[in-house]
Amino acid sequence: MRPPTIRDVAERAGVSKSLVSLVLRGSDQVRAAKREAVLTAVDELGYRPNAAARSLSERRTRTVGVLLNDMRNPWFVDLLDGLNSRLHDNGLRTLLADGHLNRRLGEDLTRTFTELRVDGLIAVGTLPPSEALRTAAGRIPTVVAGAREPTLPHVDVVAGDDQHGARLATEHLIGLGHRRIAHIAGDGVVGALRRRSFETVMREHGLSDTAAVERGDLTEEGGYRATVRLLGIPERPTAILAFNDMACVGALSAAEELGLKVPRDLSLVGYDNTYVSRLRHLWLTTVDNASHDVGRRAAQCLLDRIAEPTRPGQVVLITPTLEIRGTTGPPPGH
Amino acid sequence: MRPPTIRDVAERAGVSKSLVSLVLRGSDQVRAAKREAVLTAVDELGYRPNAAARSLSERRTRTVGVLLNDMRNPWFVDLLDGLNSRLHDNGLRTLLADGHLNRRLGEDLTRTFTELRVDGLIAVGTLPPSEALRTAAGRIPTVVAGAREPTLPHVDVVAGDDQHGARLATEHLIGLGHRRIAHIAGDGVVGALRRRSFETVMREHGLSDTAAVERGDLTEEGGYRATVRLLGIPERPTAILAFNDMACVGALSAAEELGLKVPRDLSLVGYDNTYVSRLRHLWLTTVDNASHDVGRRAAQCLLDRIAEPTRPGQVVLITPTLEIRGTTGPPPGH
DNA sequence: GACCGCTTTTGGACCGTTCCAGAACGTACG
DNA sequence: CGTACGTTCTGGAACGGTCCAAAAGCGGTC
Predict the structure, then answer these.
(1) Domain annotation for chain A: domains and CATH numbers
(2) Which of A49, A188, A211, B333 makes a 20 to 30 Å CA pair with A125?
(3) How far is CA B243 from CA A125, B167, B171, B186, B226, in A?
(4) Is B172 helix (H, G, I), strand (E, B) or coil?
(5) Do A107 and B93 touch (CB under 8 A)?
(6) Strands (DSSP E) along chain B, which ranges?
(7) Confidence label for A202 from pLDDT (cuts 50, 70 and 90)
(8) CB of A89 within 8 A of CB of A111?
């Protein structure tokens, strides 16, 4: 009761296995009658080619592996969407693996994908630095998407322009009349970029003295705690730019608990335009990273790199936009 | 510059390829000295076995395919966690594929997994009914997790006990003193089960007359609209049981817009205990489906079914619990 | 009818593993 | 010393495809 092979099909259609192979790969060198015979045999037997055998012989898999950092925070869904559609157009399928789950198990996903001999690798989001990724990138064409690190020899990076995004958000707040603005900073290269950009813009407007930065993390909890600290200082900020939407939701909760009304008493800006920010009840003003474009460009980069594996790694930045919703307004008494 | 093969390793270590194979598969029939030689050769060459060749020869892949309905609503993350850890313990790796993305592309994921010859298939969440899944399930051991459909000949179903979950929630509301309780219903088998259970419990308490049901869908928007309708009727409900957390968030927004304070004027219960319900700012009372357990049991079912593919399909229900948070309280004037 | 050139079809090598039957090697025993 | 018997090791046949060189088929021409 094994699945039928190409030889079974050949026998049934009364031709050689080579001809079946030709038909299945869409050759036009086959007479219509035989093609027909092969196709009906395929149908009758319910034949499906064996991907392992095929890739062993072709020496490629037409598959790219996608390493997700953590599925719990679904900011990357649009990115995957863009990625997938572009790769699909070029005959490549994608397989996902979630890092968070497997890291806990001590399983190395790059190893899995290396053994599968995927044609390419996409790392989505900031992955914990690992020797494994470095060696994998040395063998398999690799692109980092939606993150700025790690930077490795022959690896492209496609991400939103964090500097520009943070600028958009900060200038929006300044434009509304805010002066005392705080930033809840994230970590890693992305965190540093957004933070520095915030500080630069504040300086450009002569607001360095009223700029505050509080370390948070990428979670709601972190945003909450940071906001409690920020709102505890004497001349408290009238606006906060959070590192991401999650932290922004935390900030929202903190503000409410302290009896502040958003945006009347406090303006908040998130980052990523996740669906959480779109929930009517939250309705966060946020920076949209154009993730779909990031995904598409990452796919293109990977295709180019597969064609020419040794070209120097490049950095592609996608311009984000500001999504103004309900959590920003003029400062109190303006 | 091809990746090294088992023969390269053998040559370097001065042994036959068969011996290398033995060492790599952990045989104890190998003398320590040779084992050592093989392992250092593996190391020096950076050898990684070729999964395609291995699975072609072994006639299995040690891989199970996971079909996700839609990643946009991450209720299934805990489920995957449980699934993955149990499968990993049994030497199986998992590969994910997101249905939503690929459906749009007209790509058939069951086809992909069939061609890969995965050892098993897990369908997570309610997938749109498809002939493809039916035929796939006929060839590959398959388990449905976190959904109640489709029911197919040799397919197990592992899910939360929706009947019990809806009962817990309804009785919680009744216990708080609510009489006029509404339900925002979802569709499919799961929707029907929760709805019927809600109606049954209301009847048991002699509250059939004050029970209302409004059709929603699984989105925030659907929950919002349904709630607007529910709160528009003369004797409006003092509590709403929503089909899921998303719909519940929509209900929350609607209540707020109509000037009702939750839970003072209106109690709300969600379903799924997603991380959205855990956001401090929302803090929804909700039903926890014990997804981690569902995942673990689904994995076990799959392992059993791989061992014995033709046994009759069984239905395993996991008992949910109620997670009481901030959106439920006694009715006004109680 | 032999020959040519074109299209269509085929057999067999190969891809990198596992698996199995049997070879080689020790060691103990009669 | 020959033999029997474990323990280690090896060659070659799968596994199910692709690819290529060569064979076969088929008008048309001389």
Answers:
(1) 6-49 (1.10.260.40), 61-160+291-318 (3.40.50.2300), 162-289 (3.40.50.2300)
(2) A211
(3) 32, 13, 16, 6, 11
(4) helix
(5) yes
(6) 63-68, 93-98, 120-124, 142-145, 155-160, 181-185, 211-215, 239-242, 267-271, 285-288, 315-318, 321-323
(7) very high
(8) no
Asked whether residue A7, judged by its CB, lies under 7 Å from any atom of the DNA or RNA strand D, the reply is yes
B112 CB within 8 Å of a chain A CB? yes
Q: Which 8-state DSSP code applies to residue B209?
A: G
- CB contacts of B86 in chain A (<8 Å) are none
Instruction: Please give the share of chain A, as a percent, with pLDDT higher than 70.
Output: 99
The verdict on a CB contact (< 8 Å) between A52 and B55 is: yes
Cα(A307)–Cα(A301) distance, rounded to whole angstroms? Answer: 10
pLDDT tens string B274-319? 989 999 999 999 999 999 999 999 999 999 999 999 999 999 999 9
The string of pLDDT tens digits covering residues B38-51 is: 999 999 999 999 99
Interface-testing mutation among A62, A280, A282, A327, with chain B (most B C-beta atoms within 10 A): A280
| Interface contact flag, A52 B52, Cβ < 8 Å | yes
Q: Can you tell me the distance from the alpha carbon of B312 to that of A262, in angstroms, rounded to the nearest whole number?
A: 57
Please give the nucleotide, over all strands, whose C1' is closest to the CA of residue A14. Answer: C9
**Cα radius of gyration rounded to whole Å, chain B:** 26
pLDDT digits (tens, 9 = 90+) for A46-73: 999 999 999 999 999 999 999 998 888 7
pLDDT beyond 90 at B329: yes
Question: Do A52 and B220 count as a contact with CB atoms less than 8 A apart?
Answer: no
Dump pLDDT digits (tens) for A137-179. Answer: 999 999 999 999 888 999 999 999 999 999 999 999 999 999 9
Interface check A103 vs B, CB under 8 A: no
Q: What are phi and psi of B211, to 5 degrees?
A: -90, 130
Letter for the amino acid at A332?
Answer: P
